[in-house]
Amino acid sequence: MVLKFFSSGRVSGGTGLVALVLAEKRIPFQHIHVDLSRQGQKSPEHLARQPFGQVPVIDDDGFVLYESRAICRYLAEKYPEHGPNLLPGPTIRERALFEQAASVEFADFHIFVVRLAGETVGKALRGLPIDPIALSPLLAQLGAKLDVYERILSRQAYIAGNELSLVDLFHLNTMPIIIDTSGLDIMSNPARPNVARWWESLTTRPAWIGLRRDGIRGTVP
Ligand SMILES: N[C@@H](CCC(=O)N[C@@H](CS)C(=O)NCC(=O)O)C(=O)O
């Protein structure tokens, strides 16, 4: 049975990550739209799939999985031969470096990005102007982390090593929508040329460009 992908249909957040891995790996799927504007994610039917009342969720022949990063790992593990291999290995050290990078993405990037999203995307959604005074410390906190990224990426092409991995793609969770909304050059600042080079390599991937252009389209109705 074809994989079912329950999503908001928005190419952002966790939904965007799962859609990207499906596209990178050309995995056939049926897209099932959960209408967040009507609180579809809180319906009893959806809560049975995702107890926190959120998207994304997949149903792979009765195996139901939520949490975007867990879904991406499952898909990368299940379809190693489809598209790029997104899980480093096979050695224990390669896997350990991948896990290290995965922790860094969550603890040293995503958490700061979420704070920034509140002050940019969150404000824009409420029709409020972005407040430069509130933004400044958030940009400084993230900037300090990106200075470390710059050092890491001056030694290797990607965040877990010299090969692209899921962890690189995880960085596309919320930052693109912040950049779209605010116009800030957070990831393409010339003061961090290696971060800019790495960011460019992610955001110009054909699968990402195609998703941003066409939206999430299931391969079966
Ligand atoms: N940690 C979750 C976060 C999921 C999440 O924040 N989903 C948002 C949309 S991207 C959502 O469902 N929001 C509606 C709600 O929380 O009621 C994941 O990565 O899957």
How do you describe this structure in short?
The protein is of the alpha+beta class and 221 residues long. It is 52% helix and 8% strand.
- Computed over alpha carbons, the radius of gyration is 18 Å
- Output the number of helix runs: 9
Biggest beta sheet summary? 4 strands, mixed
**Low-pLDDT segments, ≥5 res:** none
Widest beta sheet: strand line-up: 2-1-3-4
Q: Which ligands, by name, code or SMILES, are bound?
A: glutathione
Helix content: 40-55%
Quaternary status: single chain
Class from secondary-structure proportions: alpha+beta
**N-to-C terminal Cα separation, in Å?**
13 Å
Gross morphology is: globular
Number of strands: 4
| Mean model confidence by pLDDT | 97
GO molecular function, one term: glutathione binding
Domain GST N-terminal: 2-83
Family: Belongs to the GST superfamily.
Keywords: Transferase
